[in-house]
Amino acid sequence: MSSSVLVSGVGEWSLGELPMESWMAHLPCPLWDTPLYHLAIPGSHNAITYCLDMNDRSPVDLTQPDMLQKLDKYMKPLIRPFVYKWAITQEYTIKQQLDCGVRYCDLRIAHRPNDSSTDLYFYHGVYTTLTVETVLMEIREWLDAHPREVVILSFSHFLGLSQELHMLLLTTIRNTFTSKLCPKTELLTLRNLWALGYQVIVSYEHNISSNHNDLWPHIPYWWANKCKAESLIEEFEHRKQHGRPGGLFVTGINLTEDLKYICTHPTESLKDLVMSTYPTLLSWVKEQTPGSKVGSLNIIAGDFVTESRFVPTVVTLNEKLLKWS
């Protein structure tokens, strides 16, 4: 596919028709010099919730309200199914998400309470069965097979991590990605990253990131905290008027259910809520524009990202950059 066909705007091709497992490698060359923070990039909110621990011996995470922790302790058979129905935000594995075109992953790290090992897990409501080390190695294997794709890994929350566990996590990150880790001094264009072999941008939401050249600072995440699509859109339109952050940033089109919503929709799940609102949300996404201007967006993250036209819709937004160039 020639870039001239796309730039002219008269070709039949759409960026949404690119092979999503390698969409970055297939972008037309005018976009190779566009910084990643001016591209539209699809992301996965709470990326590692497809492997939550269904074992009753696994506790709910310690960020949950005391009331829920007590109910879970004494009424587990009744409460646990609700927790799972609303805690799972992605059903596909990390490799499947990357194959579908996801290039930003929201990774919430935790050390299980009363665990004598140094193993780290992900969590959302409950802890995962897969360790952080296992998942990072899967990402590494995927990147080895896709040398021109770049992923942004956002590490955050760090529930129950001591300074020692932070250093162990940092060692794991470095040992896994080695020369693929992009230093925070680098120019974030695909052309530059390809030339240097960098494929991984690690953002680390902790003050230790300032001491390490390979840890990028926290990436701002616009979160609307709404359970209705229309309210979420209204909130983001308000924020857009004040301008976008300068570097990488995320707009999270993930809806947030509160206890009242869950109790008044006892037969529903988060997936039911998300899939019913995707048509409205994706209509809004189609109207968005990447780039540097006030009101433009960058990374757009959602739930159940592999089960709708979410990823191709976000990638297609980059055509708007071509039409200006």
From TrEMBL:
GO biological process annotation, one example:
lipid metabolic process
Gene Ontology MF, one: phosphoric diester hydrolase activity
UniProt xrefs under PROSITE patterns: PIPLC_X_DOMAIN
- Limits of the Phosphatidylinositol-specific phospholipase C X domain: 33-205
One Pfam entry name: PI-PLC-X
Q: Which InterPro entries match?
A: PI-PLC_domain, PLC-like_Pdiesterase_TIM-brl, PLCXD1/2/3, PLipase_C_PInositol-sp_X_dom
Q: What is this protein called?
A: PI-PLC X domain-containing protein 1-like
**Organism this protein belongs to:** Sphaeramia orbicularis
